Amino acid sequence: SMPSEMLLKIFSYLDAVSVLSVGCVNKHFYHLANDNGIWLKIYSSCFQPKRMIWKMKSEQTEPVSLGCAALRDRKPGYWKKEYIFKQIAVVKTRVMRLVKTADPYTGLPCKNKEAMKASGLSWIIVLKDKNGKEHVMEKTNLSFKDTSVTILWYSTNWPCLDTLSTLKLFGVMPLLPDQSRAPSKNGPRRRSLIAEYHLANLTQSSVAVGADKLVQLFSLNPGLLVGLWKEKNEIAFVMVSLHYHQLLERSTLGSATVQYALPRNKPVLDDVDPEYGLHDYSLHLDMHGGSCTYLCGTFKSLFCRKADIANGYLRLTVVSLKDNTKHLPLIGTVGLSWETDVFKGNVKDCYVMDVTLVDETGKPFWCFSAPVYMELSSDASSLYDYMGHIYTTDYADSEGKVCVALVWLEETKEYLIVNLVLYISTKKVNNWYGTNY
Question: Known SUPFAM superfamilies for this protein (predicted)?
Fold first, then answer.
């Protein structure tokens, strides 16, 4: 029942985030909160238009636009949109400045973590049950590594697993980032869909990667790990591993319903080099399990001979079984750490593998971050130099495969990588380089 003029006067004292919030109350408030007079004042106080006079009010000065054209000739909400677009552009410029410099070893931006903080970026998961109801999970623990970030969600209020149909992973950014304070989950935000996972028949359709006394882990590509309580078969936690390569783009440039489409590499065909696309690769490899890092190394000058192309894959040998001088030890006891509000644990023989394969020009060529597990192998016929159990770790997606062989050295209580081979899809190579293998 309050007159619109009085409401407009009250709204004029609010900041931008508060005006956007009151606009969500009802249709009447929405139309009032679109008032150009309110938003022009907010816009001019922040960005200060070039044409401006100063109107003196007692001891206070405030900017006032020349004439009434800026208000009269604009549709309601015009200056609100201008303010929002300008704020987004300012943040984008700040982020682009941070990611401009690339790491020579990985080809990735050096200041990814700083850029994410500057943008106010965070991540949420939305669980949808079979009745269409959505459950938003906000609380997270973040663990940053050289080339990836691992995100852990845990709660005491997970919905029943049997009722769930999908899990959606979103990047979330405040509509108006404020560098002076942490973003509020109650303020206006934008969602960008990163991935969608189907949870129906989770224990049958996903890969079981390990267990401890309390939980059992199941993996879904790309990078999702779901921990279930053993006794109740209910969700204990959800963990996602995200590689830095184009993480900012996928977390900010998609919509709430459509994933961001990664741009294709523009191939430049080299007619001079008959083995163009087969050599001068570099691999940056991280193996970690939460707070612990088991291996972090860079391997250069990887190549594939034409004779090694088979079954639609290029073979890149990183560590060879025949050359024991390059065999690599893992530091520490391999396991994947997890925690909830009450419990915490470590699932042995599981870890997160981060692969960053860089082409000869320094561009990231194939990148992923995924939970993997070690499996006991019965094949020990070719390992005459070592006494111990043999384990294997395999990973595969649409672009390639990674095969790792490790031996457990009982005397030193450590794992030793004795074989590490990457298989890259010829389709991926041909699309990237414009070749035909």
Answer: F-box domain (SSF81383)
Distance CA 41, CA 55 (A): 13
HSE of 387 in the Cβ direction (CA atoms, 13 Å)? Answer: 3
Pick the closest to residue 366 from 393, 397, 329 (CA basis): 397
Q: What is the pTM of this model?
A: 0.85
Domain 1-45+74-100 - what CATH class? Answer: mainly alpha
Peptide bond into 222 cis (omega under 30): yes
**Per-residue pLDDT at 402:** 98
- pLDDT for 241-262, tens place per residue? 999 999 999 998 899 999 998 8
Domain chopping of the chain, boundaries: 1-45+74-100, 111-174+188-251, 281-433
C-alpha span between 143 and 149 (Å, rounded): 6
Question: Predicted confidence band at 140 (pLDDT cuts at 50, 70, 90)?
Answer: confident
CA distance 437 to 420: 23
CB-based contacts of 230: which residues, under 8 Å, 6+ apart? 211, 213, 214, 215, 216
CA distance 289 to 344: 14
Using alpha carbons, select from 405, 411, 404 the residue that is nearest to residue 387.
Answer: 411
Residue 337 tokens read as: 């750490």
Among residues 129, 130, 117, 233, which one has the least CA distance to residue 177? 117
Alpha-carbon 119 to chain mean position: 14
Distance CA 145, CA 1 (A): 56
Q: Is 308 helix (H, G, I), strand (E, B) or coil?
A: helix
How would you label 229-247 residue by residue, b for 16+ Cβ within 10 Å and e otherwise? beeeeebbbbbbbbbbbeb
Token output for 300: 């250069």
Closest C-alpha among 337, 359, 229, 227 to residue 293: 337
Work out whether the CA dihedral 153, 159, 160, 164 comes out positive or negative: negative
Mean pLDDT value of segment 198-224: 91
Q: Which residue, chain included where needed, has tokens 């623990």?
A: 141
- Residue 296: helix, strand or coil by DSSP? strand
Q: What residues are paired with 284 via a beta bridge? A: 298, 356
Q: Which residue has the tokens 């001979």?
A: 305
Q: How many CB atoms lie within 10 A of CB 343?
A: 14
